[in-house]
Amino acid sequence: MSLRVRELVAGYRRGTVLHGVDLDVGPGQAVALLGRNGAGKSTLVMTVMGLLRARSGSVRVDGHELAGARPHRMARAGCAVVPQGRRLWAPLTVGEHLELAARQGRRRGGSWTVERIVEALPRLGERRRQAAGRLSGGEQQMLAIARALLTNPRLVLLDEPSEGLAPAVAEQVAEVVTSMLADGVAVLLVEQDLYLAFSVADQVAVMQRGRIVHRASTPEFRRDPGTAHRLLGVS
Ligand SMILES: Nc1ncnc2c1ncn2[C@@H]1O[C@H](COP(=O)(O)OP(=O)(O)OP(=O)(O)O)[C@@H](O)[C@H]1O
Ligand SMILES: [Mg+2]
């Protein structure tokens, strides 16, 4: 599946945050969306998914115009999001969360099953009977990721998936995302951990004050630390 965003404008009551975003993610492609805190990365993710209303501009998924579509319609179109911070239903167990998502996923067909996700993220298997509200932060993040994947999406928006994860678990998540790419899924990955972003993404897009100000292939970007330093403040 492909995502094509053009001149997307969105924001909150207090003001506009996205000032005309242009972004493409092709099938089987992972684009790392980088940028300083407050640049508008999460706002872009939320707007693409329909969790925040676009004021203007275009969001095309496989050529279909979906700007302004509600989240359930985006989900039906094959899009899934792992929002920044975790959104679980605290009283449900891990197993129940996984089963609910898998039910949706089976309707769509696709290769992700509860067994496969538990194999990729074994900690979730160990915690299967635990209420989601009693999980550690990192475990909740894993569950949020697993749930999104079990719906067998064709486009996934991951907003800082490694936040709160131990490095070894972040590595497992990176492997899961990489295997999705091989299935032709399109991935937009917001990630502070550049090492992780580079290990997964083939393209890098840098956002600054609500616009994409730089695009490069990952190898190109890595060869150009001056630009990374200027745009992200990292060395
Ligand atoms: N719910 C909200 N209501 C009002 N303003 C918001 C809301 N969420 C974010 N903002 C504002 O929008 C701007 C962009 O925030 P956003 O969360 O999109 O940035 P970000 O790039 O994801 O940052 P971070 O790297 O810290 O996650 C910021 O100025 C922020 O204060
Ligand atoms: Mg954010």
Notes on the structure:
With 235 residues, the chain is of the alpha/beta class. It has a domain at 3-85 and 155-232: Rossmann fold (3-Layer(aba) Sandwich). Helices cover 39% and strands 26% of the residues. The protein contains ten helices and ten strands. The longest helix is centred in the C-terminal third of the chain and has 16 residues, at 167-182. It is globular and about 45 Å long. The model has no long low-confidence stretch (mean pLDDT 92). It binds adenosine-5'-triphosphate and magnesium ion (MG). Adenosine-5'-triphosphate binds next to helix 1. The site of magnesium ion has 4 residues, from helix 1.
Assembly type: single chain
The CATH C-level class name of the domain at 3-85 and 155-232: Alpha Beta
Mean pLDDT comes to: 92
CATH topology of the domain at 3-85 and 155-232: Rossmann fold
| CATH homology-level superfamily of the domain at 3-85 and 155-232 | P-loop containing nucleotide triphosphate hydrolases
Q: H/E order of the elements?
A: EEEHEEHEHHHHEHEHEEHH
Strand line-up in the sheet with most strands: 6-7-8-3-9-10
What share of the residues lie within helices? 25-40%
- How much of the sequence lies in strands comes to 25-35%
Q: Give the termini distance in whole angstroms.
A: 34 Å
Unreliable parts: none
Number of helices: 10
Q: Tell me, briefly, the overall form.
A: globular
- Which hetero ligands occur in this complex? adenosine-5'-triphosphate, magnesium ion
